[in-house]
Design brief:
- It is a single chain.
- With 369 residues, the chain is α/β, with parallel strands linked by helices.
- It starts with 7 loop residues before the first strand and ends in a 13-residue tail after the last helix.
- α2 packs parallel to α3 (95-112), α5 packs parallel to α7 and α6 crosses α8 (238-266).
- The chain contains 11 helices and 10 strands.
């Protein structure tokens, strides 16, 4: 039964990659109030390897999950009995970390006698702009993160249609691998962005794969390879490093901006006729990319909406929001909720499209995008 008019207080838990996060969120009349928000990063653990090591991430989540939840509950100043439900990421993500968060959330829900809501991590990102903005459905979404890059129509809660996707690397992955190639450390995205600010974006002639091909599919693997080749063939000093980062970032921006313009042209908002263009995910924190997408939106008569910078990267506030909205809409079965749900390393938002027209192939664990 829908609980739209009821005030709901939820604990959210996020452990899909290398952030252990917990948050308490209150949802009233469709508006979200963030009561507490705790994010513990694992940068020091993964920095020596220049990337996320799944086994190390899972161990860190196991060590930090209980402490992070306790910190979020203490910051919120409430007891577990005052919660209306517990939400946790159930996928997609690194399976070891996802399992830690789910088991933590299920244990709390069972002990407190509250429903458990299994949340799709991508749905959390898709709804994250609703944390700090007036962002009613429907809207066009560009989801850009370390593991995903796709355009989707968001028609309502649980109603998503994939319009286009990367056919190989995600944007965030391309940033991280570029940083690794150039020896910039981990995490790579912010490091590339910092160097790009002082570089010449025209210094290196880098490709824009699929830029002029019809449709909204994208590709970044060839661009990443071109960066590696340019670095190997050039005499790299500090200035040339800045130039290469600027050239790479501009190439990414051109691809995203061009495809976004096509997506906005094709997007039919219906309803009030207002075009809302949402960008979410870790790469949404990149200032140059965000500024370019804002210009594209303005040219199309649309409004660009993005989550606060803190909630672009993985966080539990978006998981708590997705859980609260699902509980309010009556999308949780029974008093115990989703206790029987298992962890999913792959979990596309548009499952029908992922099965009928897979971008990557299905793999043993199901469709990826």
């Amino acid at each position: 039964m829908p609980l739209m008019s009821q005030t709901l207080t939820l604990l959210g838990i996020e452990t899909s990659c290398d952030e252990t996060a917990a948050a308490v969120l209150r949802l009233q009349d469709g508006r979200a109030e963030l009561v507490s928000d705790v994010i513990r990063t694992q940068l020091d653990e993964h920095a020596p390897y220049l990337g996320v090591v799944p086994e190390i991430a899972a161990r860190a989540h196991a060590e930090l999950a209980d402490l992070t939840v306790k910190a979020a509950m203490h910051e919120a100043g409430i007891s577990y009995s005052e919660l209306d439900g517990v939400a946790a990421t159930a996928g997609p993500g690194l399976i070891g970390g996802v399992l830690v968060g789910m088991m933590t959330g299920k244990a709390i829900a069972q002990a407190a006698g509250k429903p458990f809501i299994a949340v799709n991590h991508l749905e959390g990102h898709a709804l994250s702009p609703r944390l700090g903005n007036d962002c009613p459905f429907p809207y066009l979404l560009l989801l850009v993160s370390g593991g995903h890059c796709q355009f989707l129509e968001v028609r309502g809660l649980g109603d998503y249609r994939r319009l286009g996707s990367t056919i190989d690397d995600a944007v965030g992955e391309a940033f991280d691998k570029t940083a690794k190639t150039l020896g910039l450390g981990f995490p790579g995205g912010p490091a590339v962005e910092r160097l790009a600010e002082g570089g010449n974006p025209d210094a290196f002639a880098l490709p824009r794969p699929l830029l002029n091909r019809p449709g909204l599919d994208m590709s970044f693997a060839g661009l990443k390879t071109a960066v590696a080749r340019a670095a190997a063939e050039d005499t790299m000093n500090d200035d040339r490093m800045k130039d290469l980062c600027a050239s790479f970032q501009t190439a990414v921006t051109d691809i995203l901006a061009t495809k976004a313009a096509l997506a906005l042209e094709a997007f039919d908002p219906g309803g009030d006729g207002a075009k809302r263009f949402v960008v979410a995910g870790g790469v949404a924190a990149n200032k140059a990319i965000r500024a370019a997408l804002d210009e594209v939106a303005k040219s199309a008569g649309a409004r660009l909406i993005a989550p606060p910078l803190r909630h672009c990267t993985d966080n539990a506030a978006m998981i708590a929001l997705a859980g609260a909205e699902r509980l309010a809409a009556g999308l949780v079965e029974g008093e115990a909720g989703d206790l029987g749900t298992g962890a999913r390393p792959r979990w596309p938002l548009d499952e029908a499209a992922a099965k009928s027209a897979p971008v990557y192939g299905t793999g043993r664990r199901g469709a990826k995008a």
